[in-house]
Design goal:
Chain lengths: 277, 399, 310, 387, 387
């Protein structure tokens, strides 16, 4: 209640700060590396601040070596499409599973579980063959379609929707809403925290995904940001670390910005105060 | 006008090279346009991509395949046989420096499946400062493994977190081959029916590895860790590909006096060294395109290509003309003594052996795993070698 | 008596109301779920069926033909030491990463929520690992955990502890990877918990305070934890699944080494299928992997789920 | 044909049989109050009628339509939930507007942004806003239209819930304790609004309440439910003055009706302590009966007056009346007497008095709880029992 | 020193000043009923006293401890929430046991699994269970102890919430409409239980209710709040018979008190339609006043009798009484009369009658709403106004 620095609070802050430091350590190193000349990166003594600032050079390399703009734009398109479709598909399904009685719910649950477990690595081959025979490789469709269904989203929303009071849905039915109307007007506005959390996960996952784009994209016009990173890596011979880190920062930055924008949403309490009991 | 789609791996490494080569090629051949497909991060993923795309419309016209994967590609009839093109071009081939030794690197069972594009061999990098500090003479680098081990032990004794040796045994069997071939051994018997690497040569090879750990105190590094420690100036000797040279030079900067030397051979007379790198391979079955593709392949693997690859990477020239002619690399080696070690070893280069059969690749992993048992001292070298041999025997095609 | 029931005419029972509304409900539910179901079938089930089919073949990448070999792949799997090893490693990895990341995720979420200053900063700090690009992070971790020049070991040396060879030694590599796994997933779980916390009615905390739950710990056990039940089940399920599916870190950091000490299931499958190109065999592995997990997860889910919903 | 007919509805939750066959008919425009002890199944019945819960068996027909086959959204009923069930993310005004928007706007027009660009919706929206404001004003919540439920008091939320139901023109009104959180004045006021609306709309209304004043004053008929059965469905006066069942008599009326268990004497008379009552008609001798009389039909006289001697136990002041708790000296039974404060002057706890019942107001119920015929009422008032 | 003293508490939500300085003192064991219109801030005041909401200013002292700086858990108050606030994941029994477990078990013993292995907790748990069962029995929910809130009816939930508060021995009881969802009998019964408990515990109690019968019958003193102020705090009889403010008079009593706005004549008398009232004492001539009289102090006589001529507008039957709504012929003001059903016989809507007020029951309030001195009551009853 009070804002004084009690012992407990000091302890809490220390704990949080220490943890944050540990979690950020790799990033600190990354930012420091992005500003170092190549020979300065691996030394026997640890110094975070570059002796000579190479930020300009490294970022210039990052922008010069690949068409960063194009990559980022592709990333935005692909992630945007994926997210929107996932949500549109998953929310009604999760609602049906959470709040409606129907025979296939259990089967669906099994399918969702299966979907959660199946790694894309295992199914990429059949999917690739299918996309190839449909002549859809090298297109946004190929990048987006396999992720149009997110069982993770279904599973996540399912948990949240269940917690919503039945009376709310009943009231909506009596007010004349169709089930789809209920989803849009009652469920979604009250599930913002879950939807935002999912948005973050979805965008992050697909923004950073390297595996699938590598498989379906051979035309560089459709390359997504991580594909751009490849141009700074040379597994066999050692990477160009400074430029790699600079490029990574450029690619990660939009995510951080998006996260900062989104985070208010998923901690904004939607208390079920319309209800009693 | 013909458009060729070219796929290549490791863009971080090859992008500049490819851009340069293709630019020059297009200047010389205005009727051929080169387009690059999305590159693959590693050789491994490169070949996966090609195999997936084989037969589909996505398949590029040319690609660059790791030398040790040519056999596998050929077993799947992916590369186009280059013999007919070479026959047509016989005269100019020799003239352009495609010697038999070089051509052999990209042959599988006598079939020319590609042209070696960038080739490397294993060399010894060393930190002259540490060598000096340990009482060695940097100008007289060790010539035998015994010397390496002795000097390594002294370097290790310097303390302060300094390590003696980083031997790049991880990832594949290339560096094991370096020891084995260097001792004059072979992986399999002549007819490829029996395991041969567990012979005396192999035993010597594993013994070296064992002694590096036992006597010189070589730590268990991951690939990246070894590289990072070396460029940080914390390792005396590093044994790995010449391909890493350019980058190592950049990473070391002025931190210490970096030198290179030929890798010691267990059999200095008959010892051979495996060739790393890749070969350009024609994939397109479209005859119209094939001619253009051949032109490009020849150009890339030719002297001009080599003259671009070598300085940018550290690879050794895959083309004799390039190495000698002043028009190409000329005085490059004089100016860049660090690059000479690889060049000097060129006569010893033999193909990186690829195992037959569907388990060919897995055999490599078996050898790596058993090498690691020696390095982390969880098994005696003889034991590990025998295990490796047994396992590999099991994995070879039963004939 | 028996006779009487036999001859008595069926009494017309008044129609149950249930069926109608339930049938309608079911119909609507089907409609709402249909797009998802179709897509699941298309992009998950069908490929899985393909994988299962491939598991009975000797298909190898690059060859255009294959033949059916029955259960040969499965027979081979029985004796595959690598598979067993990676099964064990995966289990160990999961046993470390799942609980640790759940507990830490929950702890961090609670700490951040109860704090008034710097919330945005802390949330972002703990979230960043989730957004990290592993290809780049791998390099960083290699360096941080470097046995000799790495900052982690330097710090350990400062306080007089010997620094282990984190990624290099067979004894520690799995734990190091687990640590990185935890680092990556705590933020993920934190977000889920933060979202879950919003759904708890404030009134319950009021009631708890009135009921004499003096310490935050009391309130946590009385209100937060039970009310987070569904979220926790979700997070647990997802954490386990994600831990079992560990792949990228192994691939980029250790390649399963040294000597298979960090060989995990998905890596083994990948290795078999894409590096050794034995897709048929890899498919059989995948099938076993899936079968075990689906049964396990579904059982767990049904069991726990019933408990947490009220 | 009745406007609403509920036939033989049953419902169980697991082992608990909540509704054991409820049947009920309502005329067009009839207002039926549903009363009964807490947990007797009133809300459940309402929810079944609304189609929110499936009955185990039974039928519901309204306005000639068999609702049984319709889902909730199609039944066109308006309902006030006991738990309010307001949409937490909408303001009070938006909450009230929902049913109107649902009916009057097309689904295109309802879309968030695009919707507001479509032609024709402007006028409709204005009209909706007008109706919402009117309704809010009549329930005195017009100053709260911009608040979300979380920012309102309990009674305010309840009124929003009520407004949301009342703003529509449904085929059926269902109200589950819509006024329980309102203060007396507001309650009276809201009552008036509901009755008005009901009269204008002319649709059957089922109204659950715990407030007897509400049930008796608003309803055309009152339905008394108890442990899963409908005990009596009749006009308020009948329920109060002429209950068909002892439970109904006990349930309705404050303070609770006074009851004395007794047995019919051999001669058909009934002995109450020191007094014998002689009924008009004969009662079956030896049968168990219960005699009941409401507290307002008792009066208190000084000790010695003809009547039942008793002691005052305590007094309760209720503003316009005083409740006197007494105990009969002879049989130790409690008797509660309701008096005007003026009549209660001078009464104090412990004082011995005489209780004087109005004989024609005595009711007799049989062992099965059912009322014995009305002509049984006693004419021979309070004869002193002989011996 | 008083057991609870609330001093000058203020609270605003944004622009809305909800509490404008509430001060209130309660003796040890005093039962104070808090009444007031919906939304006047009763719940808010309770939440502030409980420490669940911070006041903008003001002090709260209970049992000699300054609560203002303590968090809710340390204030040792028991509260029944208007919204129940039951733990949805716990059964009714577990819900009720929570406060006992919190107090009697150590935090180790409360741990889920380990706790049940620790020594000594067994006996405590048994004791808790006994207390829970006793309390549940007294509120008639003992058969529900194993149900979760989601499986209970509204009234049942409310009783669980009540039981949870009553099972403790706090320093202060706060109850926010704890009986609003109960039927009359249960409510009377629960009322009795609360009063009993209160008497045993002997701690101050603040009790919010909308039910005037509850407020008047249970409370030692009644506090009437209105628009953020405490208008009157006094014994029930005083509140009812002797309200200090016109709003209090209007708020308490059902039906609402009859009021007629008027102005004092030059001679200090008051003209009500065709009648002139002569007060004992002088009123300031020309000042605006309101004359008020409760409906039970009016009676209806036949047309022509001395009194105010009026027409009957409608009748409302309430079981033990009948409410007659009339309109005065002379000034068009409404007058509501409460009669016993027997006195109302023969009355029908539209009938012209005479209304006879009991003069000594008339109250006069000034323009500021405050009661004018009691000795102002009229002795000269209803003189026909001249001219
Ligand atoms: N969070 C809030 N934000 C803004 N206004 C609020 C908030 N909470 C309550 N109010 C307002 O404060 C006033 C007092 O609310 P409170 O709940 O104390 O009323 P109350 O007297 O308990 O009413 P009721 O009898 O209806 O329960 C109400 O007008 C309400 O609208
Ligand atoms: N989901 C459920 N599972 C089991 N029992 C239930 C469930 N819902 C309600 N009940 C029980 O059914 C009975 C009837 O509940 P209902 O809500 O209809 O009562 P009510 O008459 O509305 O009571 P109140 O006046 O207290 O609101 C109650 O005894 C309740 O405990
Ligand atoms: Mg109910
Ligand atoms: Mg309130």
């Amino acid at each position: 209640m009070t804002n004084t620095l009690s012992f407990g609070r000091a302890f809490r802050l220390t704990l949080l700060s220490l943890g944050a430091l540990i979690f950020l350590a790799p990033y600190i190193f990354m930012i420091s590396t992005a500003g170092k000349g190549q020979s300065e990166i691996f030394t026997s003594s640890l110094s975070l601040i570059p002796t000579q600032f190479f930020y300009l050079e490294n970022f210039a390399k990052a922008f010069g070596r690949v068409s960063m703009g194009q990559l980022l734009w592709n990333g935005v398109i692909v992630c945007g499409l994926i997210f929107v479709i996932q949500v549109i598909i998953a929310i009604p399904c999760a609602y049906a599973m959470a709040k409606l009685k129907f025979g296939a719910a259990r089967l669906l649950m099994a399918l969702v579980m299966l979907g959660l477990l199946v790694p894309i690595h295992a199914t990429s081959l059949p999917l690739y063959v299918a996309f190839d025979s449909a002549a859809l490789l090298n297109s946004y469709t190929a990048l987006v379609a396999p992720f149009s269904i997110s069982v993770f989203a279904i599973f996540l929303f399912l948990q949240f929707f269940r917690a919503m009071p039945d009376d709310l849905i009943h009231a909506a039915r009596l007010d004349g809403m169709s089930e789809l109307g209920i989803v849009m007007r009652v469920i979604v506005p009250n599930a913002w925290p879950a939807i935002t959390a999912f948005a973050i996960f979805s965008v992050v996952a697909h923004w950073n995904d390297l595996y699938w784009p590598l498989i379906v994209v051979s035309n560089q016009a459709y390359a997504t940001p991580p594909l751009g990173l490849l141009f700074f890596r040379a597994a066999e011979a050692g990477d160009d670390y400074g430029a790699l880190m600079a490029a990574t920062l450029i690619i990660t930055l939009p995510l951080v910005a998006a996260f900062l924008l989104a985070q208010k949403r998923f901690v904004e309490g939607i208390t079920m105060t319309g209800l009693k009991g | 006008e013909t458009t060729l789609t070219v796929h290549y791996p490791m863009p971080g490494f090859f992008k500049d090279v490819m851009d340069k080569v293709s630019k020059k090629f297009m200047e010389e051949n205005p009727d051929i346009k080169i387009e690059f497909a999305n590159p693959s991060p590693t050789y491994e993923e490169g070949i996966q991509t090609i195999m997936r795309q084989a037969g589909t419309s996505e398949m590029p016209d040319l690609t660059f395949i790791g030398l040790n994967r040519l056999r596998m590609a050929d077993e799947r009839s992916i590369p186009v046989d280059l013999a007919p093109f070479m026959a047509k071009d016989k005269a100019s081939m020799a003239e352009q420096g495609f010697s038999d030794t070089i051509l052999k690197l990209a042959q599988v069972n006598g079939k020319q499946v590609g042209l070696a594009f960038a080739t490397s061999n294993p060399i010894m990098y060393y930190n002259a400062d540490l060598v000096k500090a340990a009482g060695g003479n940097p100008d007289q680098p060790p010539k035998t493994w015994d010397e390496v081990i002795a000097l390594g032990a002294k370097i290790k004794a310097l303390g302060n977190g300094v390590d003696s040796v980083d031997f790049r045994w991880q990832g594949d069997d290339w560096m094991f081959s370096a020891l084995l071939f260097g001792a004059g051994g072979t992986m399999l018997s002549e007819d490829e029916s029996k395991v041969a690497f567990n012979g005396p040569e192999g035993q010597k090879a594993f013994a070296v590895l064992d002694r590096l750990v036992k006597e010189a105190g070589m730590p268990v590094f991951t690939k990246a860790a070894g590289e990072q420690a070396f460029v940080a100036g914390k390792v005396g000797f590093a044994f790995q590909t010449t391909g890493a040279l350019a980058n190592t030079i950049k990473n070391v900067g002025g931190k210490f006096d970096l030198r290179t030397a030929e890798i010691p051979l267990l059999d200095p007379v008959n010892g051979k060294l495996p060739t790393g790198g890749n070969a350009v391979v024609i994939l397109t079955k479209d005859e119209a395109k094939q001619d253009a593709a051949w032109k490009f392949a020849k150009f890339a693997a030719g002297p001009y290509g080599a003259s671009v690859v070598v300085p940018g990477t550290g690879y050794v020239p895959n083309n004799e003309l390039a190495a000698k002619s002043p028009e190409y690399l000329g005085d490059f080696y004089a100016r860049n003594p660090l690059f000479q070690a690889g060049l000097k070893q060129m006569p010893r280069m033999i193909p990186w052996y690829a195992f037959p059969g569907s388990n060919g690749v897995r055999v490599t992993q078996t050898i790596v795993d058993n090498s690691s048992r020696v390095v982390d001292q969880s098994a005696k070298p003889e034991e590990a070698l025998e295990d490796a041999a047994k396992e590999v025997k099991r994995l070879l095609p039963r004939s | 008596m028996a006779d009487m029931t036999a001859i008595s005419l069926p009494v017309e029972k008044s129609r149950p109301i249930v069926n109608v509304s339930e049938r309608h409900e079911a119909r609507v539910a089907w409609m709402l779920a249909a797009p998802a179901m179709i897509l699941i079938v298309l992009f998950i089930l069908a490929p899985v069926v393909a994988v299962i089919t491939l598991g009975f073949t000797d298909f190898e990448l690059g060859y255009s033909t294959f033949k059916f070999v029955g259960f040969e792949n499965y027979a081979e799997l029985m004796g595959d030491r690598t598979f067993r090893q990676s099964l064990w490693n995966t289990a160990v990895y999961t046993a470390i990463v799942a609980p640790a990341s759940i507990l830490l995720g929950l702890g961090v979420a609670l700490l951040i929520e109860s704090e008034t200053v710097g919330r945005s900063f802390f949330r972002t700090a703990y979230f960043l690992p989730v957004a990290s690009l592993l290809v780049a992070m791998a390099t960083v971790w290699q360096y941080l955990l470097h046995p000799t020049i790495g900052p982690v070991n330097s710090l350990l040396n400062l306080i007089g502890l010997p620094g282990p060879n984190w990624l290099g030694s067979a004894g520690t590599v799995l734990y190091s990877l687990s640590m990185i796994g935890v680092w990556q997933t705590v933020g993920f779980n934190m977000i889920l918990f933060l979202a879950g916390l919003t759904a708890i009615p404030r009134d319950l905390y009021s009631a708890a305070e009135i009921d004499g739950a003096k310490s935050p710990i009391d309130r946590f056990f009385l209100v937060t934890l039970p009310m987070l039940g569904p979220t926790t089940v979700f997070v647990t399920t997802i954490s386990i699944i994600n831990a079992v599916k560990v792949f990228e870190t192994v691939k980029t950091l250790t390649e399963g080494g040294p000597n298979k000490a960090s060989e995990v299931l998905l890596f083994t499958i990948y290795q078999e299928g894409f590096v050794y190109l034995r897709v048929g065999y890899a498919s059989a592995m995948t099938v076993v992997f899936l079968a075990v997990l689906v049964v396990m997860m579904f059982a767990q889910y049904r069991l726990v789920d019933r408990k947490v919903h009220y | 044909m009745s406007a609403l007919s509920i036939t033989n509805v049953t419902k169980s939750f697991g082992e608990n049989h909540i509704l054991k066959g409820i049947s009920l008919e309502a005329e067009a425009g009839e207002f039926i109050a549903l009363v009964g002890p807490s947990g007797c199944g009133k809300s459940t019945l309402l929810r079944i009628v609304a189609g929110l819960e499936g009955a185990d068996s039974g039928e519901i027909v309204a306005g000639g339509r068999d609702l049984t086959r319709l889902v909730a959204a199609e039944r066109n009923v308006a309902m006030v939930f006991q738990s309010y069930a307001l949409y937490p993310h909408l303001t009070a005004g938006q909450n009230i507007a929902v049913p109107l928007a649902m009916r009057n706007l097309t689904s295109m027009q309802r879309l968030p942004v695009i919707g507001s660009l479509l032609p024709g919706q402007k006028a409709i929206r204005t009209d909706i806003m007008r109706q919402v404001t009117d309704m809010a004003r009549s329930l005195k919540i017009d100053h709260l239209l911009d608040r979300k439920p979380g920012q309102m008091s309990g009674g305010q939320r309840q009124r929003v819930a009520l407004a949301r139901a009342m703003v529509r023109q449904p085929g059926l009104f269902l109200m589950d304790e819509p006024l329980s959180n309102l203060d007396a004045n507001l309650r009276v006021h809201a009552r008036g609004e509901i009755v008005d609306l009901h009269r204008r709309a002319g649709v059957p209304t089922l109204y659950v309440t715990h407030d007897q004043a509400e049930a008796l004053s608003m309803a055309d008929r009152v339905a008394v439910m108890m442990s899963g059965n409908l005990l009596q469905l009749a006009a308020p006066e009948v329920i109060y003055d002429d209950p068909a069942h002892i439970e109904v008599a006990k349930f309705v009326g404050q303070p609770r009706i006074n009851t004395i268990a007794s047995r019919v004497d051999a001669d058909g008379a009934v002995t109450l302590g020191t007094w014998r009552l002689q009924p008009h008609d004969r009662l079956t001798p030896g049968s168990d009966i219960t005699v009941a009389i409401r507290s307002e039909f008792l009066s208190i006289a000084d000790l010695g007056a003809p009547g039942l001697p008793a002691h005052i136990e305590r007094l309760e002041f209720l503003g316009s009346e005083v409740i006197v708790y007494t105990k009969l000296d002879a049989i130790g039974e409690s008797m509660v007497v309701k008096l005007a404060p003026s009549d209660a002057r001078g009464l104090v706890a412990g004082k011995p008095v005489t209780i004087v019942p109005q004989g024609e107001r005595l009711m007799v119920f049989g062992a099965d709880g059912l009322r014995l015929p009305a002509d049984l009422t006693f004419t021979t008032q309070l004869e002193r029992a002989h011996g």
